[in-house]
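Supplementary Methods. Inverse-folding protocol.

Structures were first reduced to a discrete structure-token string of length 474. This string, shown here, constituted the complete conditioning input.
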């Protein structure tokens, strides 16, 4: 396991230079495999130096091993240990800030009572004005029940809250969108739908997050039909958008067309289903989805739930049966959104020439990316420590920026497809390579390109008719 910024530790130590040199301490820690990222002198007094030593470790056990080593080293006094990941979460990661100062009584009368009553009355008379005269114009609810969080599964609403806060930070940082975590202490589908419908008047959009399949399909479908604001399930559609963006460019590199490609998808839950549907919308013809029992096929749908049956009937035109490993034969593309280490690199040897492998399970990909590169021309993962990181942050901030600015009522498949092509277009064809098929998450061109593409594509969609030029109640 590699060292990671997720396990950054900071050790405050007092070094007695008469007994040991700082360089020796650095060597001892480096020998454990840690990557030292900071060595800051906090104080020095008569031969004793107080140092904050920061390093990336492999995991919590590695962090504790370093602490034990320091405690045993003569001339070193360990006084404190900080896990910087936990420090980043102390007190939460988001806060509310007013957009205008309240400096005097006049400001107060406009922002709150009595002036606010005029705005309330204007919205009462024309409810759609809430999309212009309130925070609703730039706000998204990030909603979860905590049943399918990251790679951890059903950990509950309280434990899911740090992830929702992090999502809110990304919305603001990359899209300028104010997002609010909403964690629900219920797994009941009907209750979740009722709660979201009840809070919807306070938001311009709903981002569903980490809700387990197949409930997430019904929740999203019902809310899309019953609300007049956009509803987006990021685990499904955010993943699908970025996968399509990466695949558009990867196929250019290997000189293949999506309509000719044989595509094997491992994992037919929320993400896999959305990926398959979006690839079909882009023109893919030959996709085979694989679950735990093997290939989905239209001639073997007995006892399937409706969502999986629908998927089986729209894919696998050759009626392929059997395991994923068998299905890789002559496949041009493998997309994994399932579980880590289900394949060995040599299993990819049967794929077509110039194969594409997207192993997106996190934190452990379906196949070792380094080994996979011996058999596939292009390899992508969901991790930041390998080339070609497929990360949803490339999609949802710019997408919501565009739909909020356009006041559209729903997110269509075409908007998702346009989002994907906009992400792909950020990299010019002369820049493309096997190690550069998708922009980096900090590429500021991405949210701009996405929001502009969404605004253009949304011109023919139903919108909230908001008097954007009207600044009074008359």
């Amino acid at each position: 396991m590699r060292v990671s910024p997720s396990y950054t530790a900071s050790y405050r130590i007092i070094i007695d230079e008469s007994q040991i040199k700082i360089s020796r301490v650095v060597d001892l820690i480096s020998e454990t495999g840690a990557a030292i990222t900071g060595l800051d002198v906090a104080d020095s007094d008569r031969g004793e130096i107080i140092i904050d030593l920061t390093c990336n470790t492999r995991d919590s056990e590695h962090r504790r091993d370093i602490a034990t080593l320091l405690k045993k080293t003569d001339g070193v006094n360990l006084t404190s240990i900080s896990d910087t990941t936990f420090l980043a979460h102390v007190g939460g990661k988001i806060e509310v800030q007013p957009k205008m100062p309240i400096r005097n009584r006049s400001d107060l009368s406009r922002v709150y009572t009595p002036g606010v009553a005029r705005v309330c009355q204007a919205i009462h008379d024309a409810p759609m004005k809430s999309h212009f005269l309130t925070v609703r114009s730039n706000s998204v609810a990030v909603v979860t029940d905590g049943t399918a969080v990251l790679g951890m599964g059903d950990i509950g609403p309280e434990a899911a809250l740090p992830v929702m806060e992090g999502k809110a930070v990304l919305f603001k940082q990359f899209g300028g969108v104010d997002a609010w975590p909403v964690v629900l202490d219920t797994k009941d589908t009907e209750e979740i739908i009722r709660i979201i419908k009840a809070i919807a008047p306070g938001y311009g959009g709903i981002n569903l997050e980490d809700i387990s399949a197949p409930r997430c399909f019904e929740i999203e479908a019902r809310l899309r039909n019953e609300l007049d604001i956009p509803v987006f399930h990021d685990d499904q559609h955010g993943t699908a958008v970025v996968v399509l963006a990466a695949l558009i460019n990867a196929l250019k590199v290997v000189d293949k067309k999506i309509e000719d490609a044989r595509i094997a998808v491992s994992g037919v839950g929320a993400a896999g289903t959305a990926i398959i549907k979006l690839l079909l919308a882009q023109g893919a013809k030959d996709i085979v989805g694989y679950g735990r029992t093997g290939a989905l096929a239209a001639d073997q749908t007995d006892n399937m739930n409706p969502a999986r049956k629908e998927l089986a009937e729209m894919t696998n035109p050759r009626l392929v049966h059997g395991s994923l490993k068998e299905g890789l034969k002559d496949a041009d593309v493998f997309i994994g959104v399932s579980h880590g280490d289900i394949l060995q690199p040599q299993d990819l040897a049967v794929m077509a020439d110039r194969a594409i492998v997207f192993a997106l399970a996190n934190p452990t990909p379906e196949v070792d990316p380094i080994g996979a590169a011996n058999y596939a021309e292009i390899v992508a993962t969901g991790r930041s420590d390998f080339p070609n990181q497929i990360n949803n942050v490339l999609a949802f901030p710019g997408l919501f920026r565009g739909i909020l600015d356009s006041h559209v009522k729903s997110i269509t498949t075409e908007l998702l497809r346009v989002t994907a092509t906009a992400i792909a277009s950020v990299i010019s064809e002369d820049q493309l390579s096997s190690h550069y098929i998708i922009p980096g998450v900090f590429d500021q061109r991405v949210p701009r390109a996405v929001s502009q593409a969404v605004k253009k594509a949304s011109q023919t969609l139903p919108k909230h008719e908001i008097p954007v030029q009207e600044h009074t109640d008359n």
